[in-house]
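Margin note: ligand = pyridoxal-5'-phosphate.
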Amino acid sequence: MEKSPIYLDCHSTTPVDQRVVDAMLPFFTEHFGNPSSLHSYGWSAEAAVKKSRETIAQSINSQPEEIVFTSGATEANNLALKGVAEAYFNYGKHIITVQTEHSAVLDPCRYLESLGFEVTYLPVNGDGLVELSILEKAIRPETILVSVMAANNEIGVLQPLKEIGALCQDNDILFHTDAAQAIGKVPLDVQAMNIHLMSMTAHKVYGPKGIGALYVRRRQPRVNLAAQLHGGGHERGMRSGTLYPPQIVGFAKAVELAMAEMVSERERLVGLRSQLYHHLSQLPDIHLNGHPSQRLPGNLNVSFGGVDGQSLLLGLRPTVALSSGSACSSASTAPSHVLKALGRSDRLAYASLRFGLGRFTTAPDIQQVGKAVVETVEALRSLS
Ligand SMILES: *Cc1c(COP(=O)(O)O)cnc(C)c1O
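Resulting structure:
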């Protein structure tokens, strides 16, 4: 049998940690109840959901009642953006977001534009960061919401959430952040950062796919949200649908593990990443995409001058599983909108690799990948 390629695509998804699987299993069979049911089967499921809600809330310094479970970050983003737009349009119809956001923010924004909202898509600087002065200038009296992601899914850069939160507070505007890539990897604190809504997902942090949450602030201020799914009135009426205890328990276990291991894991990943970058640096004409240090510990995104991006990916495919640009929009052949926003040429944007290192990445993996990338780039360059 052929050896599986090394997995370095942790920004698209991660394997479920065995400890998470073990925590989930009893909730498929033994504790299968519906958390809404008023009998012992329901109560044991409800108790597990309650405990999970507390774990997730604690990890971002919020209250358990402020966690609304969803099917993932796409749904959480849709609920945040459309839910706020629908609840606050009387106050204004202007929203501010960023050109480098995930399509799960950009597409709901475009949809809201079709309904008559105005959206400002802020540019970023050459490192991929939002400039506060530009954000400040974009704020209008009718601005109701600012949505800026915590960590970028392509270049890993960490936006200055605390400073953005302070600016939103000064201007009485709601602040939403898509933290799909950030939870469990970098510290997040909805109080200190003045965040009103935060999207989360389990499957980027060694939890199961199909579960996530939206944090919705209840005090100072209490955020109103128009539900996008109507039904049994679950989750304080914001998101109807029977809760899914195995997924919720798995999500909480994944968050608990990531929080406990965050500091040591960050150090380990930063070490592996610099090893990889050091290895690649023997090649001339390579370009680091995104801020050199203000980024996720497991992210490295590099453009290689003088090679064709497709041939590079193809050449590496037997050795390593990774993506060029964003896996989420890889069906399209357009160059990455994130790399374009950094000012990269089409050519360099195409010839980019996104390395997503994670919990199960080892030093020998990095050695092997570094060697394969250098050899492949050199071979392609010698052909052209
Ligand atoms: C993966 C991702 C999403 C989508 O999350 P799902 O849970 O897969 O719906 C949204 N935003 C960002 C930044 C992501 O990386």
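The pocket of pyridoxal-5'-phosphate is lined by residues 72-74, 102, 104, 149, 153, 178, 180-181, 201, 204, 212 (CB under 6 Å).
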